Amino acid sequence: MKSAVRFVAAVPPVFVTVLMLVAIADMLAGVFLRYVMTQVSGFFNLPTIRFFWVEEIGELCLAWMSFVGAAIGIRRGVHFSVQMITDHLPAGLRKAVFTTHYLLIAGFGALVAIFGWQVAELNSQSFSPALDLNLRWLYLSSVVGGVLIVIYSAASIVDGWRGRWPAMTVPGSPDSRAGAS
After folding, report:
1. How far apart are CA 105 and CA 152, in angstroms?
2. Residue 148 to residues 105, 165, 175: CA-CA distances in angstroms?
3. What's the Cα-to-Cα distance from 59 to each of 50, 55, 168, rounded to whole Å?
4. pLDDT, tens digit, for every residue of 110-148?
5. Which of these, 82, 76, 103, lies nearest to 165 by C-alpha position?
6. Tens digits of residue pLDDT in 35-70
7. CA-CA distance, 99 to 104, in Å (whole number)?
8. Cβ neighbour number for residue 10 with a 10 Å cutoff
9. CA-CA-CA-CA torsion for 24, 130, 135, 149, nearest 10 degrees?
Protein backbone atom coordinates (compact mmCIF):
# COMPACT_ATOMS: atom_id res chain seq x y z
CA MET A 1 0.00 0.00 0.00
CA LYS A 2 2.79 2.45 0.87
CA SER A 3 4.53 1.78 -2.44
CA ALA A 4 1.31 2.60 -4.30
CA VAL A 5 0.95 5.85 -2.34
CA ARG A 6 4.58 6.76 -3.05
CA PHE A 7 4.07 6.03 -6.75
CA VAL A 8 0.97 8.25 -6.89
CA ALA A 9 2.81 10.98 -4.94
CA ALA A 10 5.66 10.87 -7.48
CA VAL A 11 3.36 11.42 -10.47
CA PRO A 12 2.91 15.25 -10.21
CA PRO A 13 6.65 16.08 -9.97
CA VAL A 14 7.44 13.70 -12.84
CA PHE A 15 4.56 15.20 -14.85
CA VAL A 16 5.89 18.73 -14.30
CA THR A 17 9.40 17.60 -15.25
CA VAL A 18 8.15 16.05 -18.48
CA LEU A 19 6.17 19.20 -19.27
CA MET A 20 9.28 21.29 -18.67
CA LEU A 21 11.28 19.15 -21.09
CA VAL A 22 8.49 19.33 -23.68
CA ALA A 23 8.30 23.12 -23.28
CA ILE A 24 12.07 23.47 -23.72
CA ALA A 25 12.06 21.27 -26.82
CA ASP A 26 9.02 23.13 -28.14
CA MET A 27 10.64 26.54 -27.72
CA LEU A 28 13.88 25.35 -29.29
CA ALA A 29 11.93 23.95 -32.23
CA GLY A 30 10.07 27.24 -32.53
CA VAL A 31 13.27 29.26 -32.63
CA PHE A 32 14.82 26.85 -35.15
CA LEU A 33 11.77 26.92 -37.41
CA ARG A 34 11.35 30.68 -37.18
CA TYR A 35 14.94 31.80 -37.66
CA VAL A 36 16.64 28.94 -39.52
CA MET A 37 14.04 27.16 -41.60
CA THR A 38 12.36 30.37 -42.69
CA GLN A 39 15.69 31.53 -44.11
CA VAL A 40 16.36 28.14 -45.73
CA SER A 41 12.87 28.08 -47.28
CA GLY A 42 13.37 31.60 -48.61
CA PHE A 43 16.83 30.85 -49.97
CA PHE A 44 15.74 27.73 -51.87
CA ASN A 45 12.35 29.19 -52.82
CA LEU A 46 10.51 26.40 -50.97
CA PRO A 47 7.09 26.65 -49.35
CA THR A 48 7.29 28.07 -45.83
CA ILE A 49 6.96 25.80 -42.83
CA ARG A 50 3.96 26.48 -40.62
CA PHE A 51 5.02 26.70 -36.99
CA PHE A 52 2.00 28.28 -35.32
CA TRP A 53 1.54 25.15 -33.20
CA VAL A 54 4.65 26.04 -31.18
CA GLU A 55 2.90 28.77 -29.22
CA GLU A 56 -0.07 26.57 -28.41
CA ILE A 57 2.08 23.75 -27.07
CA GLY A 58 4.07 26.23 -24.98
CA GLU A 59 0.88 27.76 -23.59
CA LEU A 60 -0.55 24.35 -22.72
CA CYS A 61 2.67 23.28 -20.99
CA LEU A 62 2.91 26.55 -19.07
CA ALA A 63 -0.66 26.34 -17.79
CA TRP A 64 -0.27 22.77 -16.57
CA MET A 65 3.19 23.41 -15.09
CA SER A 66 1.92 26.47 -13.22
CA PHE A 67 -1.06 24.86 -11.54
CA VAL A 68 0.48 21.47 -10.78
CA GLY A 69 3.75 23.15 -9.76
CA ALA A 70 1.91 25.47 -7.38
CA ALA A 71 0.35 22.45 -5.69
CA ILE A 72 3.73 20.74 -5.40
CA GLY A 73 5.13 23.89 -3.82
CA ILE A 74 2.35 23.87 -1.24
CA ARG A 75 3.05 20.25 -0.34
CA ARG A 76 6.76 20.95 0.05
CA GLY A 77 6.15 24.16 1.99
CA VAL A 78 8.32 26.26 -0.30
CA HIS A 79 5.91 29.10 -1.03
CA PHE A 80 6.66 32.54 0.33
CA SER A 81 5.88 32.96 4.00
CA VAL A 82 6.97 35.31 6.74
CA GLN A 83 8.20 33.12 9.55
CA MET A 84 9.96 35.81 11.52
CA ILE A 85 6.90 36.15 13.74
CA THR A 86 5.56 32.58 13.73
CA ASP A 87 8.93 31.16 14.74
CA HIS A 88 8.64 33.02 18.05
CA LEU A 89 5.06 31.96 18.84
CA PRO A 90 4.29 29.26 21.40
CA ALA A 91 3.96 25.79 19.85
CA GLY A 92 0.18 25.60 20.26
CA LEU A 93 -0.43 28.98 18.69
CA ARG A 94 2.01 28.14 15.90
CA LYS A 95 0.01 24.99 15.13
CA ALA A 96 -3.19 27.03 15.04
CA VAL A 97 -1.63 29.59 12.68
CA PHE A 98 -0.31 26.92 10.32
CA THR A 99 -3.58 24.99 10.42
CA THR A 100 -5.49 28.15 9.52
CA HIS A 101 -2.90 28.90 6.85
CA TYR A 102 -3.37 25.52 5.15
CA LEU A 103 -7.17 25.66 5.55
CA LEU A 104 -7.18 29.00 3.72
CA ILE A 105 -4.95 27.56 1.00
CA ALA A 106 -7.28 24.55 0.69
CA GLY A 107 -10.24 26.93 0.35
CA PHE A 108 -8.41 28.80 -2.37
CA GLY A 109 -7.64 25.52 -4.14
CA ALA A 110 -11.31 24.54 -3.97
CA LEU A 111 -12.31 27.87 -5.52
CA VAL A 112 -9.73 27.46 -8.28
CA ALA A 113 -11.02 23.96 -9.02
CA ILE A 114 -14.70 24.98 -9.00
CA PHE A 115 -14.30 28.06 -11.16
CA GLY A 116 -11.75 26.28 -13.35
CA TRP A 117 -14.34 23.60 -14.06
CA GLN A 118 -16.89 26.27 -15.00
CA VAL A 119 -14.41 27.93 -17.37
CA ALA A 120 -13.46 24.55 -18.85
CA GLU A 121 -17.12 23.79 -19.50
CA LEU A 122 -17.71 27.21 -21.05
CA ASN A 123 -14.80 26.64 -23.43
CA SER A 124 -15.56 23.00 -24.18
CA GLN A 125 -16.84 23.91 -27.64
CA SER A 126 -13.79 26.00 -28.52
CA PHE A 127 -10.75 24.65 -30.30
CA SER A 128 -7.24 26.00 -30.71
CA PRO A 129 -6.54 27.31 -34.22
CA ALA A 130 -3.28 25.48 -34.99
CA LEU A 131 -3.63 22.13 -33.19
CA ASP A 132 -7.44 21.94 -33.27
CA LEU A 133 -7.24 20.89 -29.63
CA ASN A 134 -10.30 21.27 -27.44
CA LEU A 135 -9.59 24.20 -25.11
CA ARG A 136 -11.16 22.29 -22.25
CA TRP A 137 -7.76 20.58 -21.86
CA LEU A 138 -6.10 23.94 -21.31
CA TYR A 139 -8.56 25.01 -18.63
CA LEU A 140 -8.67 21.63 -16.90
CA SER A 141 -5.18 22.45 -15.67
CA SER A 142 -6.74 24.77 -13.10
CA VAL A 143 -9.13 22.04 -11.98
CA VAL A 144 -6.34 19.50 -11.49
CA GLY A 145 -4.14 22.09 -9.80
CA GLY A 146 -6.96 23.19 -7.50
CA VAL A 147 -7.78 19.62 -6.48
CA LEU A 148 -4.10 18.92 -5.82
CA ILE A 149 -3.86 22.10 -3.74
CA VAL A 150 -6.77 20.89 -1.59
CA ILE A 151 -5.28 17.39 -1.23
CA TYR A 152 -1.79 18.66 -0.44
CA SER A 153 -3.10 21.25 2.03
CA ALA A 154 -5.06 18.55 3.85
CA ALA A 155 -2.00 16.28 3.86
CA SER A 156 0.11 19.14 5.23
CA ILE A 157 -2.38 19.67 8.05
CA VAL A 158 -2.33 15.96 8.91
CA ASP A 159 1.47 15.95 8.82
CA GLY A 160 1.55 19.10 10.93
CA TRP A 161 -0.60 17.64 13.64
CA ARG A 162 1.83 14.73 13.67
CA GLY A 163 4.63 17.22 14.26
CA ARG A 164 5.99 17.69 10.73
CA TRP A 165 4.74 20.96 9.26
CA PRO A 166 6.16 21.46 5.75
CA ALA A 167 6.68 25.19 6.27
CA MET A 168 7.36 25.28 10.01
CA THR A 169 10.82 25.76 11.39
CA VAL A 170 12.02 25.57 14.94
CA PRO A 171 14.17 28.48 16.06
CA GLY A 172 17.71 27.31 16.71
CA SER A 173 17.24 23.84 15.20
CA PRO A 174 20.21 22.54 13.21
CA ASP A 175 17.95 21.48 10.31
CA SER A 176 15.45 24.30 9.88
CA ARG A 177 14.16 22.76 6.62
CA ALA A 178 13.02 19.59 8.39
CA GLY A 179 9.76 21.22 9.45
CA ALA A 180 9.73 19.66 12.91
CA SER A 181 7.79 21.29 15.70
Report:
1. 10
2. 11, 18, 27
3. 17, 6, 34
4. 999 999 999 999 999 999 999 999 999 999 999 999 999
5. 76
6. 999 999 999 999 988 888 999 999 999 999 999 999
7. 9
8. 10
9. 0
